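TEACHING EXERCISE
Course module: macromolecular assemblies
Task: Read the component lines below, then compare them to the predicted structure of the full complex.
Student: A.B.
Group: 4
Components provided:
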Amino acid sequence: MIDELDRELRAAGVPARRRRRIRLEFEDHLACDPSADLGDPGALARQFADELGTAYARRAGFAVFVALAPFGMLTIALFLFASVRVSYPPLALTLALVVGVQLAFVGGALAALRAWRLRRLVVMPAVEAGVLVRRAGLAVVGAALTTVPLGYLASGFYPFLLTSRPLAWVTLATGTAAALLGSAAVVRAWRLRPIADGEAHDLSFDLGLNVDPWRLALGTAGAVALCITLAGVVQSDPIDGLARGLADGSLCLAGFALFGRPLGLRRQVP
Amino acid sequence: MKAEALKGHLDGLILAVVASGPAHGYAVIDALKQRSGGVFDLPEGTIYPALHRLEAEGLLASAWESASGRRRRVYRLTRSGRAALGQRRGDWQLFSQAVEEVLA
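Instructor-supplied answer key:
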């Protein structure tokens, strides 16, 4: 029975180290009671994969958020209070910073939100776990991307006048540690995923709303466009405000279309 | 009692057993049987995935120990596990009182 269980565990994707431990525990159990009925090996292996995979996926969602939160706060502090732009930075670095920060924030926040919504679930469908791990993974990629321009900034190559260089180094060190810690949790969850059938929820589930996700995206894009247009009106430049408002609103919708699947913003079926 | 009927309560039961003192898998199952007067007679293997999951969630911690020349994984309750057990006890009291009120 134990050899068969080992084969089934391997087929379910349970890592070798975990399989060895399960084997030893079951051998000890049978030594205590040789007539014990431990159950069907295939069903047991699926239960191990489902329950552990669910716990790992949820933990990855929380771990990435907790690891990235201090990094996010330090990055905001650095750019708000400790730097003065003296010229435009290279485009690639600016893009890495802008995209990285947003990926880290959106991915991390959505991963933690979904993990929180599913906190009492013993077994989540494979598709749902995939969404959680992808969100956490994108957040880690975003954080790693952000550390590149931060490294330039801290080294003094970046065209920013820093009023606190130590803060830049602390931010960079925190970001690197956060990316490493987060990636460990993501890799562990990616290696052992549940295999249960079922659908994944969408963005409206995360937010506790009962709205079609596309309507939500349209509403958000419209609100962003309106705010920026109004800001242009206040600054006596309504045409520029309208142009920037439309551009940012369109970018919101493009982001939703582009990241709708990897971030699980739309409903997903296997 | 069928495993299906215990769904949703198994975690609390395991945490309560381990709260009495560190125990290995077989001892947890045996305690569940004894303390329930034989009512909770689960398929024995199904307890192990739950033990592993509770450990992955940080509610249990475990370590290898030697017993009769064999290696044995012994589980103990963590601080988070104790808090979770308190929460589950509260939930259960509320639930069972409500059911009793309705059935009475």
